């Protein structure tokens, strides 16, 4: 049996593993290829806070992911295929590492976030 997501350390493990996979992914890796090591570190720190808030409602995330993704879409259009791949990769990474109530909740939130972004960005 795998553990559930219970701590920030678990969030960090999930985020690190997920983005490790993203970097080499044929569908969505290109969206991240421009990032320097410094930008990656900043991005990961933001994502730790974002997902920690999404699971544990900590209130420790500040930002507007919708605006960021709209900006990215202007520079490099984000396709429905890319949104779908992001969700599939996130769910697979979660399933590989964790199981339980919080693992299911984070996958549901990821799906919902991607769906809303896709609707607002792609119409």
Short key terms for the protein model shown above:
123 residues; single chain; Globin-like
Detailed description of the structure:
With 123 residues, the chain is mostly helical. The chain has one domain: Globins (Globin-like). 71% of the residues lie in helices and 0% in strands. It is built from 5 helices and no strands. The chain has helices at residues 8-23, 37-56, 65-75, 80-97, 101-122. The longest helix has 22 residues, at 101-122. It is globular. The mean pLDDT is 94.
Brief rundown of the structure:
The chain has helices spanning 8-23, 37-56, 65-75, 80-97, 101-122. The protein is mostly helical and 123 residues long. The protein has one domain (8-122): Globins (Globin-like, Orthogonal Bundle), CATH 1.10.490.10.
